[in-house]
């Protein structure tokens, strides 16, 4: 699954400008970016996104300038065959093919960006098919198919110290993050810069946000009144990742409470407890890292 959120944001900001779109359409070996990864290039030389992590972007910028000037769409192939590959190629040993097409009706129609945004806002995936011969894209199937999944979200329950680091990690990962806690003294913009703050009771907040398979709900408050309410709500939706902080003993007690509250036996294993990958984490920052890693692993497993 390619992360193209920043490219889609740039497409909104540069709407109506002359642009070219580069897309990784095939990979082999240790390619640095997955299929479907985009790089959007503005006529003035600005760009957003990446197709190789820096190895071939200079050459892509030149191809994009030619496409913007009127040249037809082109598929560029990169790999490592000789010393020249260190100048334009992939020293990591992989191979990629990149389509460079104009953002226009003879390439990637601008209206597709708007359709992608609308679908993702509804929590739906959107498929764009591309004919690699003509370089023309349209909604639906095609020789090359790229899927734009809904934006990934993280709902953190409990504005505690672990939540501060976890929110920062999620923000760096491009995951839209909400911190939910009815305790106003915990939930402040100073403690949680750059994320959405929600002081509603957790079951109300989670229900209103309608978590989907691209959403994670993680409970951290250690207060059963707060955490259990959030978990009950999260399990009523197809939430992609549900996790709860606590020891194995406290998690066993949690499962008993949730079962008594009416959670179906088949839904109880959906809760990862204790939350996070087993990396021997010590302290809030390392625990937050383990949770972020487990969340990303779950998202990738569903892609």
CATH class of the largest domain reads: Alpha Beta
Task: Give the spatial strand order of the biggest sheet.
Answer: 11-10-9-12-13-14
What global shape is seen?
Answer: elongated
* Structure summary, number of beta strands: 14
In percent, how helical is the residue content? Answer: 25-40%
Give the topology:
Elements: H1 5-13, E1 19-28, E2 38-42, E3 47-49, H2 57-68, E4 74-78, E5 95-102, H3 110-121, E6 126-131, E7 136-139, E8 144-148, E9 153-157, H4 161-172, E10 176-180, E11 196-198, H5 202-209, E12 215-219, H6 224-234, E13 241-244, H7 248-260, E14 271-272, H8 283-302
Parallel strand pairs: 9-10, 9-12, 10-11, 12-13, 13-14
Antiparallel strand pairs: 1-2, 1-5, 2-3, 4-5, 6-7, 6-8
Put the structure in a nutshell.
With 303 residues, this protein is an alpha/beta fold. It is 32% helix and 23% strand. The radius of gyration is 22 Å and the shape is elongated.
Structure description:
This protein is an alpha/beta fold and 303 residues long. The protein has 2 domains: 5-148, no CATH class; 153-302, NAD(P)-binding Rossmann-like Domain (Rossmann fold), CATH 3.40.50. Helices cover 32% and strands 23% of the residues. It has helices spanning 5-13, 57-68, 110-121, 161-172, 202-209, 224-234, 248-260, 283-302, and strands at 19-28, 38-42, 47-49, 74-78, 95-102, 126-131, 136-139, 144-148, 153-157, 176-180, 196-198, 215-219, 241-244, 271-272. The strands form 3 sheets. It has a 6-stranded parallel beta sheet with strand order 11-10-9-12-13-14, with helices on both faces. Strands 3-2-1-5-4 form a 5-stranded antiparallel beta sheet, with helices on both faces. It is elongated. The model is unreliable at 82-87 (pLDDT under 50).
């Amino acid at each position: 699954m390619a992360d193209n959120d920043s490219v889609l944001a740039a497409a909104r900001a540069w709407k109506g400008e002359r642009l070219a779109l580069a897309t990784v359409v095939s990979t082999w070996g240790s390619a640095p970016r997955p299929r479907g990864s985009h790089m959007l290039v503005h006529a003035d030389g600005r760009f957003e996104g990446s197709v190789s992590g820096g190895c071939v972007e200079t050459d892509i910028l030149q191809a994009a300038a030619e496409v913007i000037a009127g040249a037809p769409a082109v598929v560029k192939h990169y790999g490592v065959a000789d010393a020249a590959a260190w100048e334009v190629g992939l020293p990591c040993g992989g191979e990629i093919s990149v389509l460079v097409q104009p953002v226009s009706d003879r390439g990637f129609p601008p209206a597709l960006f708007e359709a992608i945004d609308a679908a993702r806002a509804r929590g739906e995936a959107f498929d764009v098919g591309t004919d690699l011969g003509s370089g023309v894209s349209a909604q639906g199937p095609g020789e090359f198919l790229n899927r734009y999944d809904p934006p990934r979200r993280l709902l953190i329950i409990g504005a505690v110290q672990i939540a501060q680091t976890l929110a920062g990690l999620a923000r760096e990962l491009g995951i839209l993050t909400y911190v939910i806690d009815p305790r106003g003294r915990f939930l402040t913009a100073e403690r949680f810069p750059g994320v959405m703050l929600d002081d509603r009771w957790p079951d109300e907040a989670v229900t209103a946000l309608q978590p989907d398979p691209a959403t994670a709900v993680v409970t951290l408050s250690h207060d059963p009144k707060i955490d259990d309410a959030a978990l009950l709500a999260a399990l009523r939706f197809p939430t992609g990742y549900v996790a709860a902080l606590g020891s194995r003993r406290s998690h066993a007690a949690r499962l008993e409470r949730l079962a008594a509250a009416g959670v179906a036996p088949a839904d109880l294993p959906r809760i990862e407890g204790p939350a996070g990958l087993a990396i021997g984490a010590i302290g809030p920052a390392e625990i937050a890292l383990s949770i972020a890693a487990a969340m990303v692993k779950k998202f990738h497993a569903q892609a």
